[in-house]
Design brief:
Shape: globular
CATH superfamily: Gcn5-related N-acetyltransferase (GNAT)
Order of helices and strands: EEHHEEEHEHEE
Number of domains: 1
Largest sheet: 8 strands, mixed
Helix content: 10-25%
Distance between the termini: 46 Å
Strand content: 25-35%
Number of helices: 4
CATH architecture: 3-Layer(aba) Sandwich
Amino acid sequence: MTAPDAERSGAGRSISGVVLDALTPDDADRCAELEAILFPGDDPWSARAFREELRAGHRYLAARDGDRLVGYGGVALLPGRLGQQAEAEIHTIGVDPACQGRGVGRALLDRLLAAADDIGATTYLEVRTDNAPARRLYRATGFEVVGTRRRYYASGADAYTMRRRPGPVRSADPPAAAPR
């Protein structure tokens, strides 16, 4: 996935003709198809895995170009309790190779991070050490490498664990005008 700058997108807004909305169980087969294309040899997620993630209540988004699903992303949100820091984990982000470079991955990530920021969560993810475009995207959104997981992927590839501290709490509503 490439990481060009794209403005933060709200629900239903278009990014280069692509609209973000909620991922549904009906999208699981297409997600699994994209996983097989994007992550061959690294134990790509099955349609069942996507359905289980949705059943578990994790937040998943779809990127659609017309009726076609061209991207997806998901995050697990763990609100802080009893003085503990809230945490979030980006589970997956994928964009159809034909749609990469259009800001779709960035828009998905921005929306997932906004959900994490809304609960004040520190966000974690794993990324292949050789996936330079994804690492650039994550660095551009405030992630830093905090560790390496050797042979993390089924192919034997290593992964970096990356962390992003909570950003400012975002609101879907524009700020009110200041009184004069």
